[in-house]
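Honest question from a wet-lab person: if I give you the sequences of every part of a complex, can you actually get the arrangement of the whole thing, not just the pieces? Trying it with mine:
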Amino acid sequence: MAESDNYWLRRKVSRRSALRGSALAGMGAATYALVGCGDDDDDDDGGNGGGVLPTAQASPTAAKTPVAGGSFSFQISSNPPSLDPYTQTSFVTAYNHGLSYSKLFRFKAGTPDVAPADNTMETDLASAMPEQPDPLTFIIKIKPGAKFQNVAPVNGRAVTSDDIVYALDRYKNFEKSVHKTSLSFVDKLEKVDAGTVKITTKLPYADFVNYLGGNIGAWISPKELAESPDAATKMVGSGPFILDEFKTGVSLKYKKNPDYFDKPYPYFDDVTAFVVTDQAKRVADFSSKQVNLTWLFLPTERDQLKKERSDAKSEETQGIGQYIYLRTDRPPFNDKRVRQAISMGLNRPAIRAAISKGEGVDEQLYHVGFPFARQVKDLPAAQAKLWQHNIAEAKKLMAAAIGEGKTIDTTWDHADAAIYTQAYVDTATLAQAQLKEIGINIKDQTAPYAQYISTTYQGQYEGMGHSPRAVPYWLDFVTERFTMKPARGRINLSYVNDPKLEDLLDKQRGQFKQEERLQTVKQIEELVAEEQYEIYFSTDTRTYFWDKDIENYRPTAWFPYTHLMKTWRGKA
Amino acid sequence: MAQYLAKRLLASLLVLFVISILVFVAVRAIPGDVCRIVLATPDVDEAQCAAIREELGLDDNVATQYVKYMGGVLTGDWGKQLISKRDVWTEIRSRIPLTLELTVLATGFAILIAIPIGVISAVKQDTPIDYVLRFVSIGWLSIPGFWLGTMLIVFPGKWWGYTPPVGYVDFWEDPLKNLEQLYLPAFSLGLALSASLARVMRSAMLEVFRQDYIRTARAKGLREYSIIVHHALKNSMIPVITLFGLQVGVLFGGTVVLEGIYSLPGLGLLTFQAVTIKDYPQVQGVVLFFAAVLVTINLLVDLSYAWFDPRIRYS
Amino acid sequence: MATQAVTNPVPVADLRRRPGRSASLRRIARKKPVGAIAAVICLLLILIAISADLLAPQGANQIDPLKNPRLLSPSLSHPFGTDNLFRDVFTRIVIGSRISLGVGFTAVFIGTVIGASLGIVSGYFRGKTDLVVSRAMEVVLGFPPLVLAIFILAIFNTSKGYSFRSFLLLSFAIGVIIAPTTARIVRGSALSIRNLQYVEAAESIGNTSFGIMRRHVLPNVVAPIIVIASIQIGNAILAEAALSFLGLGISDAYHPSWGTMLQEGRPVWLEAWWMSVIPGAAIAFAVLSFNLFGDALRDVLDPRLRQSS
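Yes, you can. This is the full assembly:
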């Protein structure tokens, strides 16, 4: 299928810095399953796969001329705990990092011609995609005019290769860095000259550009700030907007960086991110036209907002899915049949009906949202059927695994609704009730978020648990989920230890040839589907809303909001 | 009087001392590994943890830690937040005005509602008006503030597209906008207080009406209005103040919920967020601060009796 | 003490020697019709909470898309509608009363036992004991009540989901914030008993302090204890609801509480009014009934208490 190759095709194009354009991105968009059709509320989720983008924003608006000036505001759902990129992985922080900091590369997404989950990269501080004299060496040149913002402590000095080496080294080696393992592919960081960096990797690493263009462990924050006491409360980078004021728990106010290296951006004079923790208040604030952009609303809230703000633009995106992890290293979940039974015992459509009005992409594997990612229906039939609600079959598997008429008593750990939202907790409630029917009796164990993250999410749990899964922007992300080499992967919560899988993971990591890597990914998908190491729920739909006169904006699954620099407010 | 004052002050200090020990010890029992909380990632190693524990001074014994901590508190160093490294005291101080304003506004609402109800109820004792007013105020006492507060966001937004302005501004920056942001939570917070106040007002007034000096005033032919305002109201202030002293704490507690719902960056929200992310230096600081305020208010309440009722003698 | 003017010794109403109890009940009911109705409602609420499992038409967590389609508005078959997870809201309100009222009562019980014991002891012994108890109560009053409960729960509640331990802990956290009020009022009453001659007589013939407190002081402070406890039930229910709303409660899918139901239903408040109105109204209704009952009880048993609570 053509769609399978799209991602790679676009990668290639992008790396050659040629032929960028809406035509290809449009194809990418078409294969990315956006669900729900425009304004109507019908329950038809036939948008799965192959559907054409429903909303008008999809058509490129290149004809319009940008207007500089004006102000813009959006909402974030919690207060960034710390702004220091070296010691944080918080997504709320990442939204904001994107406004003030730059990286070597950045997501192309965020403008109308790129689909929300399209992870194509473009250059940011780098002047071009890296040159690769051999599979282990990457040479990157910095854009000649790149400089930091004209604010203390850097006062507008140039961004040099020293800054790049410093930042990446700090991510990799600083004692309190939380990005050490992710950057373990890096072997040596060398300055060639003031404008050139040479990075050597330990192994051929096909995700090099995607990792360094992503939202964690890649921001170039200058030494002067990183080692000052203000690191957690200030941002001074080379990005399009200057952080003017950070009122804890209230807002982050930005003003235009007039010296931004990437002309003609940015367009807005000032941008404000309001911290609004209460979901009802976020809806109300946009209804009463107090913010220009708001996001991630489930269908119920979406319909409400559409009624109240019929003037606003909106787009539905595929929401974040959730998955069950379980102790595959000990009974009873070390038996594949039990895991398969669990998957067949889940009534995914019923969960979707309860939470997102039946909308969402019902069946996906671990690569949520990627254009190339296969949906379950494209898997071999023997595996695809594991996603179908089939109590009889599930009971048969259970009987074969643990004996006729026997049941399993286990626990299910998860966080409360404070950070992960009520839909997350509701999913557990529904799933537990469904699994009871196939003889799995679950004790629900809710913990406060902080406790969950510091215990269960570290692998300290007994039976089962569930978590949301982020949309990974680099393919090798799966390694962290499934590896035991050299130690349990960062989020290998299922304690997967499968040599066959490890071999495949090792293989794909070094495959620079797209078609080849994709073949390996397919094998991984099928293996994971068969084994049900993680059991996936459907994704829901999440809608973004923005003012009608906002131009050149589009939702994206990626957290940095650098692309706001390309957005402007048309004269209505 | 001076002796009483000194004794009372000393007692308050003692109470604060005990509170500080309790809080300090309790906070150290928060479950969960501190370094995992600080790093907020599954990706930690022992060296990182050791460095963090050392930085936080967690390797000393508890007594040493306490002495160090209290030394810091007295000299203005309340420690740093776990994750953002903000100064705990600066953070508390910057949030005082908002919570103070919210409590004052709530009390204002409560008084505005309670005085007329209390007075009318007392004057019209045991008439249908009295019964209705008493029933109404007991009704208010029964409405959860957080429920009212949330409904006041959700439904005006749904019906009329109205919400208070987003992004908190300081009173001095833009008084009108500030008040528009605060009146809904203040009302939700003050309603229950108004009910208790009205009840206390009513019975206190009734009590006062029975006193000799009121009878004297009536006998002198003073107008009823004048009697109520000049004599009865002032003299019924003591139970009202007592109640207020007890209710300030309740108001502070209410701010935890309402500031959260309305995204108001006050002490209540600070408390709740600190508890949520287990930022224990901040939890410790803010709880200690609340305690200091309440103990001081209770002291002032005690002393104010003298002003309102000269008959009280301090022994 | 300086605050004598406020905590006046309360005249004693001795419950033991009142003749014709049922007759006097009828008389009270005629005099206080609202209170009497409230009393009946409170009794009903308690009965509902006790027999919740029998009364509830379904299981608390019976997820049944066929029987309970998503978000049905109230009707004959679902008097309070259904929620977004295919459950019957009436069922959950009925079963939710177990935690909402159960915690309320247990908290008041704990608070009353602690508060009354301390009040009696400090009123009886006076002097140093009184001073220590008073300071201890000031320590508790030094915390904003809800903040103290949050603090206790955040630190000590390690249960994930409902457990008997967490039920007791939550009740204790609320009980602690209730205790000082009880202690203050009981102390006042105990002080006045202490000064009576028969207590001195009992002392002089060699009765132990504990014996005197149990046989002479306690029976004489029962009235204020009952009154103050009944008045505090409403507050305890509200505190439980607020804590549950904040996510610090103890309920889970099988053990709902009204405060948690309000919080959990928030995503669909706009879509389904009954998800916001009904749990809130249940809380307000229960609290109102107990408040009215407590109010009437106070007028009957101990009118002078009106001032100090």
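Two things worth pointing out. Chain C touches chain B through 48 residues (CB under 8 Å). Confidence is low (pLDDT under 50) at residues 1-17 of chain C.
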